[in-house]
Amino acid sequence: MRVLLQRVTKGSVSVDGEITGAIDFGFVALVGVTHSDNESVAEKLAAKTANLRVFADAAGKMNQSLLDVGGGALVVSQFTLYADARKGRRPSYIGAARPEIAEPLVRCYADCLSQAGVKRVECGVFGALMQVEIHNDGPVTIMLDSDNL
């Protein structure tokens, strides 16, 4: 599983012009699932997300977590995080899990964020063509990969 975290001042996702999820500040989490992923992987990455200290403390140092600052998480499925563009000009997505595997694991990741204490967890619409508005703060963008845990 790969989670691309972007620290944001606000973020939203829309489908067909309608907002399906929005947060004021926190993380936009773009989530990709591969074939070997399971609920345990989703739980570990959600815990890492909730506790990652990349938010400023009173001294301006990145020393606080999403839980510490009371931020939200906007979870958006993103199979293209498993794109393989090593050959040719058209990426292969063979590394991405099929929707029937990926969708429940993206939902599990979001549910685990809530269970970890993240106050507001919003989601995109799995499989839909989404417009994602990201106001990256910093910018701070961090890739979490279950292969590196």
Can you walk through the features of this model?
With 149 residues, the protein is α/β, with parallel strands linked by helices. It has a single domain (2-148), classed as 3-Layer(bba) Sandwich (D-tyrosyl-trna(Tyr) Deacylase, Chain: A), CATH 3.50.80.10. It contains three helices and eight strands, in the order E-E-E-H-E-E-H-E-H-E-E. The chain has helices spanning 39-51, 66-69, 99-115, and strands at 2-15, 18-23, 26-32, 55-56, 62-64, 72-77, 120-123, 131-145. The strands form two sheets. Strands 1, 2, 3, 6, 7 and 8 form a six-stranded mixed beta sheet that branches. A two-stranded antiparallel sheet has the order 4-5. Helix 1 packs across helix 3 (99-115). The radius of gyration is 15 Å and the shape is globular. The N and C termini lie close together (11 Å). The mean pLDDT is 97.
